[in-house]
Write a structure and sequence with these properties.
By secondary structure, this protein is of the alpha/beta class. The protein has eight helices and nine strands. The chain has one domain. It is 26% helix and 19% strand. The structure holds iron/sulfur cluster (SF4) (2 copies). One iron/sulfur cluster binds next to loops.
């Protein structure tokens, strides 16, 4: 891992890429943020965040109107699909969106800033990496690698069945059932499965060590298991439903009745 002293004048937000969504060709952007200190989330720990958002639609409007399709595809957790999204837009992401509105996209500058931060990267603080060309995602992921070449990022996609399949090298397939987990695994993906408390952990699955059920033993920034298959087999991770009561109820419905 690089030990880098953080420059007080270093940017906190940069646009890494702006272009047509692979999902519906609307203009979207990839914003790298939390570049100085990393995120403050208890579960993820300190990580540089990568937001994948509509370029010309305010994030809260995007989720209300369904324009988030351009960056989330047909994810069952979108508010217009019934909700349950793990990411909370809150006030922070809209601020990041506003701040980055006028910034010119510069992938190389984003990579330099990621390297200088010395922090691991979370791809998809909101939005799905399947909306973005794989070369852009892999360039960001490579910028975060340690000096030993090891992955230092996390990434997830709900669109594992239909997206550019190279994404499995760097992202987990987010799955909501045992059957979906088996299908994704057969297609060569490492999986992150969400389960209810009464569902078993399957053979070969590892309980997320940052989860409540594992005693919050670590953070994503230390663990970094959710980085796809890389050159190897990848790890299958499982976590219990968590979050607000509404979110948990929605996730339970989706897990128990996938078409709901
Ligand atoms: S989980 Fe990801 S892809 Fe699904 S709605 Fe939330 S941000 Fe979008
Ligand atoms: S397994 Fe590790 S990287 Fe994945 S969600 Fe849990 S703590 Fe984060």
């Amino acid at each position: 891992m690089s030990i880098v002293s953080r420059d007080a004048k270093a940017p906190t937000i940069l646009v890494a890429w702006r272009g047509k969504s692979l999902i519906d060709e609307a203009t979207i952007r990839v914003v790298v943020h939390c570049l100085k200190e990393g995120s403050k989330s208890r579960k993820t720990g300190k990580m540089v965040q990568v937001l994948i958002c509509n370029d010309d639609v305010y994030p809260h409007d995007a989720v209300k109107t369904g324009a988030d399709f351009s960056v989330c595809g047909n994810c069952p957790l979108r508010p217009t699909n019934g909700g349950g999204c793990y990411c909370n837009l809150g006030k922070h992401y809209p601020r990041v969106w506003e701040t980055s509105n006028e910034l010119v996209a510069d992938l190389e500058a984003a990579c330099v800033a990621i390297r200088a931060s010395g922090l691991p990267v979370r791809i998809g603080s909101w939005g799905d990496p399947s909306a973005v060309p794989f070369d852009v995602i892999s360039t960001l992921v490579n910028a975060a690698r340690g000096d030993d070449g090891r992955a230092r990022h996390t990434a997830y996609t709900n669109a594992w069945a239909t997206c550019d399949q190279r994404l499995r090298e760097v992202a987990m397939a987010s799955v909501l059932s045992e059957a979906e987990k088996v299908m994704a695994e057969r297609a060569g993906w490492a999986t992150l499965r969400v389960r209810t408390a009464d569902m078993p952990v399957l053979q070969g699955e590892v309980v997320c060590p940052a989860s409540k059920e594992a005693g919050h033993r670590t953070t994503c920034s230390n663990c970094l298991m959710c980085c796809g298959t890389g050159r190897g087999k990848g790890t299958h991770v499982v976590i219990q439903t968590h979050g607000s009561a509404n979110k948990v109820n929605r996730l339970h419905r989706l897990i128990e009745e996938p078409e709901s």
